[in-house]
Amino acid sequence: MENQTILYTLVLSGLSDLPSHQLPLFLVFLLVYLMTLTGNLLIVLLICTDSHLQTPMYFFLGTLACLDMGFSSVTIPRMLFDFHMQKKLISIQACITQIYFFFFFVASEIVLLAVMSYDRYVAICRPLHYTQIMHWKACVLLVLGVFMISVVYSLVHVLFLLKLTFCRLTPLQSFFCDLPQLLLVSCSDTFINVLLILILAILVGGGIFALTFCPYIIILNTIMKMQSKAMRSKAFSTCSSHLTVVFIFYGTSCFSYFHPNAKTNSAVDKVASVIYTVLTPLVNPLIYSLRNKIMKISLKRVICKLIQI
């Protein structure tokens, strides 16, 4: 350690080193970012202004839209800034801060998706008690619980990161500060950090994964017992959007971190990271708006009012 120079600034490799690619990539991701903010903000505004959408399910959906805006804002603005820089430098403090908020929004979305699964379970399997169980106080407490779990989860990672020193000049093979990439450039012993990632992934990730999907076993069993085709169709419709979002989020995140040769194929790694961090927050509002009749009716109502004005 005495002969090693401690670094206070790291280098990001970005998406491309070719100067000719910088402007087209900047325009593409700027458009994606604006579409992400617009789509999710539109969902939040519709839920806040339309009395038909002020129910627990749409309250959670509005929270998810807010998380998607925050999730995309953690990585894309920095990426857009780096497209104009010849050397993509980031300080250790800024890098760890980005990791904190990245983990916060990822954990929040994972836990919130589990809460939304529970909401659908109560609505379909215990409809007569739905208003008693999912009252507004319970909904607010559930969302506060989501944020508390996410704060603790991300804070644990950051506290152990602050104990590390960085002395390797190897650029991070990513367009944002990703924790596995950051550990590779540390000159400290990262065994505890890696162990922490595995333990929290198994305990928190695995536990939340089970809480997300287990209710759907009961839900599907309940739906299949329904005698009315209209009721079955309505039940499937309310669950299909949520399940689609869950599969996209878990599928892209697992592929991003657990696909074969993740450490040796940086190009595949970057593509997976783009899908996970950039495209997922973009498609979520599209899924909920295009697959939800009430949302489409509400949107048409707002458009008609705007046209009349």
UniProtKB/TrEMBL annotation:
It holds the Pfam family 7tm_4. InterPro entries: GPCR_Rhodpsn, GPCR_Rhodpsn_7TM, Olfact_rcpt, Olfactory_GPCR. Coiled coil: none annotated. Keywords: Cell membrane, G-protein coupled receptor, Membrane, Olfaction, Receptor, Sensory transduction, Transducer, Transmembrane, Transmembrane helix. One of its GO terms (molecular function) is G protein-coupled receptor activity. The chain crosses the membrane at residues 25-46, 58-79, 99-118, 139-162, 191-218, 239-259, 271-290. One of its GO terms (cellular component) is plasma membrane. The keyword Transmembrane helix applies. It is found in: Cell membrane. Belongs to the G-protein coupled receptor 1 family. This is Olfactory receptor. It comes from Hymenochirus boettgeri.
